[in-house]
Amino acid sequence: MSEQRESIRSNAKYLRNVRPIDPDEICEYVTGNPHPAVVRQHLREEAAALGLIERDDGTFVPVGDEPVRPRRGPVERLPAEYGRRLEDLLVERYGPDWETGASGDLLRSTIRRFKADYLDGRSVDYDDDVAAGYAIYHLPGYYAAIQYALDDLADRGLLDRTLRVLDLGAGVGGPALGLCDYLPDDALLEYHAVEPSAAADVLEELLAETGRNVHPTIHRTTAEAFDPSEAGSGDGFDPTAPDDGFDLILACNVLSELEDPVAVVRSALETLAPTGTFLAMAPADKNTSIGLREVERDLEDERLWDRTAVDFDAESGEDAETYRRGEVTVYGPTVRLWPGERPSDRGWSFDVRPDLEAPAFQRRLDEATPDGDEHAPGEFVNVDVQFSYAQLRLDGRRRIDMRLETSEWAQMAEMERHVTERIDLVAAKLSRSLSDGDGNGGRGSGRSNPLFKISDGSEDTDHYAVVTRETALNRPLLEADYGDVCSFEGVLALWNDDEGAYNLVVDEETIVDRIA
């Protein structure tokens, strides 16, 4: 570190707890009297290590201790500044009329191809054209989805204003931008993206539109090859130390593309802070959603860094203890309501949120489709927000922490013996209504009765609550959010042979209450 930079750093450390740090003032105390702009740039580069945020007036102050509050209301649109930046990139690559002619045809065919490859489980190579098409088609939905998943953490005060984040397979940046905008202006974000493909170029452009207190670093390597020691900073941060680590690790829409996702997630968890969260997300389609849940279940209860292990230290010639970070616990949104029980059903569970406003760049590409092209209007407009997610922690915390007793409630693991009986049970609501539309979880569209996947964390077979008659006493099921836990009194247990699942019939004899 240069003498000048160290002098600026020392002054900042002294003043940070005294008064706002003003570059115009510090420059007078630094050897050589550098210009305030030089001091400001040094402070920006050191801000994450010093725990400082830059205010609108150009001064720097310590970041606050109060946790981030949850967002209120739906995400309505991708902010215009990100759309403009993306269109600038498209103009730079393909020309001012990027949506027409050969470039438009190329982008449309690219989107069609990677959508087909993805649904068929084939790998996708992210060259410049695929990265551009991916940004056009997927950026808005992924931007919104991450914010809904973060609500689970903010609602429990688990999202600090100072965040060190690792984003594995960051892609073109939908989750990154959503995270940046979720945080308040007075939060400090040290963001490390791992992305080896051409998508990193788009990510870099879009991150330039984020706030002054976002400090990004892009590591252009694979998740498998990433060395977490490269993310260390000048304040002694070491993500490989047992008492340190990333506050939030993201793996969004990438696990299905990895050869060994369990190994990658396990390795990432070893760099998670003792009170941090690992957040994995996947599209809502059957294969990727079930695959996400399989990773969650494979790692659950696994111990990282055995606390009693003894290693030989070659430098000292003595034995040295090593300490595990903790035991992998599923924080949410799936539940474990019965001690010692774990679910083994197929695990297809996803959330659905309100559609976004269609961004201008999607409309441009869609409306420019040639008349001779077999094209359904809206083919290149993707405003759906449907996603699966899993949150893992190492401190044993769960979003819903309950321990049920069989003397009071029926257990889904034993549902076979309750068929044709009216029973009482407690379960989490793990879907929006599956009765209509295409995103129905394979239950057959066109059903008139509201239908919801439910779980108590013990089941080996899918369970669904079907509302055959709505009343004031069972309406809480319809009003409950994704992941909320409800009690069901007097629900009728039936076996659905056609679907190979249990139906829990909610009718005029059933009472449903939401459990806080």
TrEMBL record:
InterPro entries: DUF8157_C (IPR058959), DUF8157_N (IPR058470), Methyltransf_12 (IPR013217), SAM-dependent_MTases_sf (IPR029063)
Source species, domain of life: Archaea
Residue span, Methyltransferase type domain: 166-278
Residues in DUF8157 domain copies: 5-56, 413-515
Annotated region (Disordered), positions in chain: 434-456
GO molecular function: methyltransferase activity
Gene3D superfamilies, sorted: Vaccinia Virus protein VP39
Pfam families for the chain: DUF8157, DUF8157_C, Methyltransf_12
GO BP terms: methylation
Keyword annotations: Methyltransferase, Transferase
Name the record gives this protein: Class I SAM-dependent methyltransferase
Organism from which the protein derives: Natrinema altunense
